[in-house]
Amino acid sequence: MKDFLSIIDCPVDFLKELLDMSTALKALYRTGGRDLCLAGRTLAMLFEKPSLRTRISFQVAMTDLGGSPIYVKPEDIGGLGKREPIKDMARVLSRYVDGIMARTFEHKAVMDLAEFATVPVINALTDWSHPCQAMADVLTIREHCGRIEAVNLAFVGDGNNVARSLAFAAARLGMKMVVACPAGYELDEETIRRANQISPDCVRQTAEPSDAVADADIIYTDTWVSMGQENEKAKRLADFEGFQVDMKMLEAAPAGVKVMHCLPAYRGFEISDQVAESPNSIMFDQAENRLHFQRALLKKLLS
Questions:
Q1: Which one is catalytic: 41, 262, 286, 294?
Q2: Cα gap 98→42, rounded to integer Å
Q3: To which H or E segment does residue 123 belong?
Q4: 172 is known as an active-site residue
Q5: CATH 3.40.50.1370 domain residues, the chain
Q6: Which CATH superfamily is domain 7-130+290-302 in?
Q7: Which of 58, 119, 136, 143 shows the smallest number of beta carbons within 10 Å?
Q8: 3-class SS at 251?
């Protein structure tokens, strides 16, 4: 694997190796150890969308491994493919750095970067896919459930890029996933079909949150209004009425169910403050694991 663009593109053994490396590196750094496998290496971090967790976790991960991250602000790029062709940018950067991380809007942008770059390209988020988030989530699930296989994951909210990446992770790694979305916001049928081709009946969809959480080990939610959708906020808040992960929803789930959110969380909308602060919430473990997974990913692709 030269690049990391989508979980659906990755063999199972590759994904499991990354999870095991994440666990090992997490233990190493927590006990004061260091692995400077990327000394002398440089990572260009291209941002069309600003981010707290993505920027800091990748920057710290690269530094922890002895490498040098270079943050490229949205205004520095001028829009991927707008100021200059992506194929030109990819070939120039390949002569300067050892890897490219991109957080952008269109998924085609990272695909074009990977096609023309001679160094590894990492998808740090597109409108279609968020594989680093989903793999950090799987790492968190394994830590809290003691397994990945046969874990029941309920995703309640918008059938977005995170839901899609989790569906592909479920298919590759043996989880069962139920997606609960209001009408008009469902996870697309092509994603569900592709996931179920890999692992039959691993992903299904419902319009009833109570149905989705009935057997859940994990309840997962995300913002109802993603970056770039601000003009739809009032409509979305109305359409998602009844989909908030609150204490009533937890009562409809098995005792001890864990709650995940990829953050930022808009408390009082997709998740209640009471749930976010409850013992069921593992969203900050989840956020921390972005760092540990990305250390492993950088080591695997750049060392």
A1: 262
A2: 5
A3: strand 121-125
A4: no
A5: 7-130+290-302, 131-286
A6: Aspartate/ornithine carbamoyltransferase (3.40.50.1370)
A7: 143
A8: helix
131-286 folds as Rossmann fold (3.40.50)
The side-by-side arrangement of strands in the sheet containing 42-47 is 68-72, 42-47, 99-103, 121-125
Q: Which of 142, 290, 292, 295 is catalytic?
A: 290
C-alpha to C-alpha distances, 214 to 79, 92, 118, 195, 252, nearest whole angstrom: 44, 52, 47, 22, 6
Q: Which of 222, 286, 292, 295 is catalytic?
A: 222
pLDDT of 1: 87
Write the burial class of residue 90 (CB in 10 Å: 0-12 exposed, 13-18 middle, 19+ buried): buried
Catalytic-residue membership of 59: no
Determine if the peptide bond prior to 264 is cis (ω within 30°).
yes
Q: pLDDT digits over 200-253, tens only?
A: 999 999 999 999 999 999 999 999 998 778 888 999 999 999 999 999 999 999
Catalytic residue check, 144: no
pTM of structure: 0.97
In 112-142, which positions are buried (b, 16+ CB within 10 angstroms) versus exposed (e)? Answer: bbbebbebbbbbbbbbbbbbbbbbbbbbbbb
Residue 8, pLDDT score: 97
Positions of the chain with pLDDT lower than 70, given as ranges? none
Joined tokens for residue 81:
């493919």
Residue 273 bears catalytic tag: no
The two tokens of residue 167 are 């569906």
Is 222 assigned a catalytic role? yes
Whether 103 is a known active-site residue: answer: yes
State the catalytic residue, choosing from 41, 130, 261, 295: 130
Query: Which two structure tokens, joined as six digits, stand for 87?
Result: 């194929």
Tokens of 119: 């160094």
H or E element that contains 101: strand 99-103
